[in-house]
Amino acid sequence: MSSSIQFVRNATFVLHYAGTSILVDPLFAEKGRYPGFPGTVNSELSNPLVDMPINPESLLDGIDAVVVSHLHPDHWDEVAVQLIPKDLKIYAQNEEDAEIIRSQGFTHVVAMKEENDINRIKLQKTYCQHGTDAAYSIPELAAILGKASGCYFTASGEKSVYYIGDTIWIEEVENNLKKWKPDIVLVNAGKATLLDDRLGAIIMGKEDLLKIHRILPEATIVAIHLETVNHCVLSRRELRQFTEEHGFSDKVRIPEDGEQFSLES
Hints:
Layout lengths: L3 E6 L2 E6 L2 E5 L31 H5 L4 E4 L9 H6 L5 E4 L2 H9 L5 E3 L3 E4 L2 E7 L5 H4 L2 H7 L3 E6 L6 E3 L7 H10 L3 E5 L17 H10 L4 E5 L11 H10 L6 E2 L6 E3 L3
Parallel strand pairs: 3-4, 4-5, 5-6, 10-11, 11-12, 12-13
Antiparallel strand pairs: 1-2, 1-14, 2-3, 7-8, 8-9, 9-10
């Protein structure tokens, strides 16, 4: 089977790559199970905003490992904790997250190092900043935003894949793009926004996709983390219109929930 991405919903996807299937950032809850995130826009809405497009149990069939970029509930939720086999290998962003996942009953949890080997795949952990400097200057908010990570996947004979993760545009992201020149760039692009708009967005938005395209005009950009949780204000329609207006719609894929696509296309 050729390498592919099965996009699920929000930031959840399965990377079928170099003969290995890796589940990333599972949010498995049914529509409306959780309250909206307090202190964010549209917090009166319940999350997730949409149903799972795929049965979680069938999605887990054939999964070799799980990567959890951070423990916010839209990336690692209580339904995923219930359904994922407790002996499946879980890669957490750091030892603190790994300990929490172990406390949930998982027996094969490792804290990612800077470089990790998953069968034939090399996984490099990348740094994220899950909000602006102004947001992190508020101790209570900094504690909520916490730490987040991204991942860079490579394997011999495969296209390289950079999952940027929950971050705003920072120098490290720009440097990674210029250094690695990934073929596929997955972007959490929903522009999640706090109530206090002076603090800015806490993940990327449409303008950041244009920055990526200008650095890597031949890369395929995959925009995810859209239309699933209350505080993500960027819609697929608005993003599609933006990419058309700026002349790079042919380089941006905006998958529908449940869509699977080849990395060769």
